[in-house]
Design goal:
Elements (H helix, E strand, L loop, with lengths): L7 H13 L4 H10 L2 H4 L4 H9 L3 H11 L11 H6 L8 E4 L2 E5 L7 E3 L25
The structure holds zinc ion (ZN).
Length: 138
């Protein structure tokens, strides 16, 4: 199996999501239960391989189709952070000045900044003055 860098997953997922946007929620759900997902949706071989090896692909696809009409996933570091900030997930992660936090209490001020996505471990910006930049690993 060719070595895939973890950091390349979100980029390839974005390619998959763009292809899924050609299909309705119903077509995607039918393709999932058909167990012939890639060919039902005419996905390229490269994307089919990603689906075969990516551990949480069905959750990611489900999350994507549940939020794609209400927000632009491309505006977030990954689909997980996008989903967690949505009403579907009770806005359990909040974004302020490009920094993401998990709420720890009832007040908006009770929160912890997160440096990595809890699902895919992509690095997140933790400095409000460095909006849109990802932290460098040191
Ligand atoms: Zn993620």
């Amino acid at each position: 199996m060719p070595g895939l860098k973890a950091a390349s997953f979100p980029i390839q997922l974005r390619d998959l999501f763009k292809l899924l946007d050609r299909h309705s929620d119903e077509e995607i759900k039918d393709a999932i239960v058909s167990e012939n997902f890639s060919s039902r949706l005419n996905l390229p071989t490269k994307i089919g391989r990603l689906i075969a090896i990516y551990p949480n692909i069905w959750t990611d696809i489900g999350w994507y189709i549940s939020i794609r009409k209400s927000l632009h996933v491309d505006n977030f570091p990954c689909v997980h952070i996008a989903y967690a900030t949505s009403a579907k997930a009770n806005r359990s992660i909040v974004e302020e000045h490009g920094v993401f936090s998990i709420l720890t209490g009832n007040k908006r001020s009770e929160k912890l900044v997160i440096a990595f996505c809890p699902w895919c471990a992509i690095g997140l910006n933790t400095d409000a003055s460095q909006r849109l930049k990802h932290p460098k690993s040191e």
